[in-house]
Amino acid sequence: MTYAPARAELADPAAAFIAQEELRGAHNYHPLPIVVAQAEGSWITDVTGRRYLDCLAGYSALNFGHRHPELVAAARAQLDRVTLTSRAFHHDQLGPFCAELADLAGKDMVLPMNTGAEAVETALKVVRKWGYEVKGVPENEATVVVAEGNFHGRTISLVSASTDPQARGGFGPFTPGFRTVPYGDAAAIEAAIDDTTVAVLIEPIQGEAGVIIPPAGYLAAVREICTRRQVLFAADEIQSGLARAGTTFACDHEDVRPDLYLLGKALGGGVVPVSAVVADRAVLGVIRPGEHGSTFGGNPLACAVGRAVVRLLSTGVYQRRARELGARLAGRLDELVGHGVVRFRVRGLWAGIDLDPVRGTGRDACERLAERGVLAKDTQGSTIRLAPPLVVEEAELDWAIDQLAAVVRPG
Ligand SMILES: Cc1ncc(COP(=O)(O)O)c(C=O)c1O
Prior knowledge:
By secondary structure, the protein is α/β, with parallel strands linked by helices. It has 14 helices and 15 strands. The chain has a 7-stranded mixed sheet with strand order 4-10-9-8-7-5-6, with helices on both faces. Strands 1-2-3-13 form a 4-stranded mixed sheet. Strands 11-12-15-14 form a 4-stranded antiparallel sheet, with helices on one face. Helix 3 runs antiparallel to helix 11, helix 4 runs parallel beside helix 11 and helix 12 packs parallel to helix 14. The chain is globular, with a radius of gyration of 22 Å. The chain starts with 6 loop residues before the first helix and ends with a helix. The structure holds pyridoxal-5'-phosphate.
């Protein structure tokens, strides 16, 4: 099928790109009608030259902003040397990347992959194998406890662990071995564990569910239960980790160290997909040659960018910015409660804002925000997520909240 732009589309370059994408791209997303041409820091420019403040930041993949100079420089330098070897050969970026990331997390080892979903899949394989080889679970009986409302990715096994009918519908048969408990309920986790349980897999903050922050003490209780019951604690920090929540990891809020950190998104600096499972040797050591891998996982370009991300995180600057700007964001959102906002949750520079449904859907609000130059994303009907790049200026954040106030305040 050939794409022939209509007369109106020729006059409107954005409409032409959207029409072509609709026609030739699978409809697995429903984007806002903005066609991005360029971006820098916290700002996006569309094909018509209009600028927008990015308040989604690639679902936290752009924690350091668009095209952070140090990340771009690291990528450029590596582009001039070597980009891909496959894991059939060693290269001079993988060892340093693993060591530096493992040190950041206070763990022994790293297993690099590409997308977040692959990191979670990798973790599931690791905890199952650990269960059989170390814990002594009978073969093929391993179970993993997961939480209602989770989002771990889109593969068959991850939608098998999901409770979202839209994510699962039409994709069965599902992978067995998951036990689902309410999020935030440590006693339910304890009750779900038996001799077959190899891991508890949770997000320390549930992003897609609407930035759901568990009750204080939950993560510490999960840690205690997992240790006492000889079960691994796998924390999916793909969206919550790497400074977004005001600390290097969201688990740091309760001073909790999970057995496995699942990382992605910001680990690639918004430049390349980089994900990883980070754990001690007693856990990751169960994987031996030939048992798991990826052609692109741990490639030189990814590792060079990942190393630059770890360097940025080592300064603590982004964690501090997330805390300080997040406190400001919370203060400003407080003013909107009862004025179009029903309630909100903030951790670091990350907010889930439940709008008054009488004022329309979250999607409606995001469309109106876009008209005012602010890009955000709705979730769960009438919730909006705000997660600007951590390089956003205070005045820019204030301006974004002013736009939100204008959109949601009853007229
Ligand atoms: C907590 C969490 N885990 C896993 C994923 C999946 O990551 P990816 O889309 O890179 O596969 C996401 C993506 O939104 C996520 O938020």
